[in-house]
Amino acid sequence: MSTLRLEIVTPERKVYEKDVAGVFVKGTAGELGILPRHIPLVTPLKVAPVRARRPEGGEDLITVHGGFMEVRRDKVVILAEAAELPEEIDVDRALRAKERAEERLRHREHYDFRRAEIALQRALTRLEVTGRK
Predict the structure, then answer these.
(1) What is the mean pLDDT of the chain?
(2) 117 near 45, Cβ under 8 Å?
(3) Whether pLDDT at 111 is above 80
């Protein structure tokens, strides 16, 4: 089976680096599936899980909080503002962040709506990656 290298990098560290059969992301223009030998591409990403399909079957989910994806013939590099593997996520903290963001969205006249909306999306993404959504 043909593969490509996926690297997910934040300003602090390299979060993920493996050979994968496919990468599936949510870009600002919609969902994208990247397979080996894809044409070169650069696109901004939304706050959403990245699915990395393993060559032997199954997939890895990685939380990505915005950034950019660069696709080369045999490599995909995601430069993310932040990224987390499921085992790194504090589920209780994500649940509290979700509740706090929802409360702020209900009282939007007292809070920055856009900031609360982004906080909610980050919390929901973390919970989805951990299977708790």
Answers:
(1) 92
(2) no
(3) no
Q: Which phi and psi (to 5°) does residue 66 adopt?
A: 75, 180
Give the burial class of 82: count Cβ atoms within 10 A of its Cβ; 0-12 exposed, 13-18 middle, 19 or more buried: middle
Amino acid identity at 83 = A
pTM: predicted TM-score of the whole model, two decimal places: 0.86
What separation in angstroms does the CA of 49 have from each of 20, 24, 52, 66, 112? 16, 9, 10, 10, 24
Q: What's the Cα-to-Cα distance from 7 to each of 15, 74, 80, 81, 126, rounded to whole Å?
A: 8, 11, 10, 14, 19
Q: What angle do CA 20, 2, 125 make, to 5 degrees?
A: 25
The 10 Å Cβ neighbour count of residue 41 is 13
Whole-number pLDDT of residue 70: 97
